[in-house]
UniProtKB/TrEMBL annotation:
Protein's name in the database: Heme ABC exporter ATP-binding protein CcmA
Pfam families in UniProt: ABC_tran (PF00005)
Protein encoded by which gene: ccmA
Organism superkingdom: Bacteria
GO molecular function: ATP binding
Domain named ABC transporter: residues: 2-194
Protein keywords: ATP-binding, Cytochrome c-type biogenesis, Membrane, Nucleotide-binding, Translocase, Transport
Parts forming coiled coils: none
Keyword field contains Mitochondrion: no
Amino acid sequence: MIEAQELACWRAEKLVFNCVSFAIEPGDALLLTGHNGAGKSSLLRVLAGLLPALSGSLLWSGEDAFADLSAHGARLRYLGHQDALKPALSAAENLAFYARLHGGDVMAALEALGLAALAELPARVLSSGQKRRLALARLALGQAPLWLLDEPSVGLDAASVERLAPLFDAHRAAGGMVIAATHLPLPLPAARELRL
Ligand SMILES: Nc1ncnc2c1ncn2[C@@H]1O[C@H](COP(=O)(O)OP(=O)(O)OP(=O)(O)O)[C@@H](O)[C@H]1O
């Protein structure tokens, strides 16, 4: 279980959020919502251990999640606004880089996001929606219990959003958790909402 206790975040000389608390269990999904600048991305970065909280704590199975940042990093996948792709590498080569870190089957991950036919194309020629799908394909590689997703469906057409459903369902059925910042509906049935 993950428990956030009274997290606060300070950025650019202002308090972005304060007293953010929630608890999620294996299989749960939590949607972070709120207006532009409310602090959704900042909260995801805090949860990932990429941005120090001003105050508060994050517990993982009752222990301080940030006590060992590399162990914390190993149990999560963080997908930010940026797709984090190397433009000169092919779609398959981009994923192979992550597969070396996390394990997993590159072709199966490409297929899960409908990208198998584009495997050999350099990432720079992919459309923005195809690039987003390639970034999301990292989730179909080796398992990690917590997915932190920042606007995962931005730029995706309706069919591509639907393609995320089996990926999310399988992750949650295996006890995985999803925390996603979004302005758009996502195929995460029974997700709870945390409005910032
Ligand atoms: N690197 C940074 N340095 C300084 N301030 C930042 C930085 N990143 C974000 N902020 C500020 O922190 C606040 C929260 O930004 P954040 O990106 O977390 O909001 P958000 O809810 O994700 O917004 P959006 O819906 O527009 O993506 C904003 O006022 C923003 O200007």
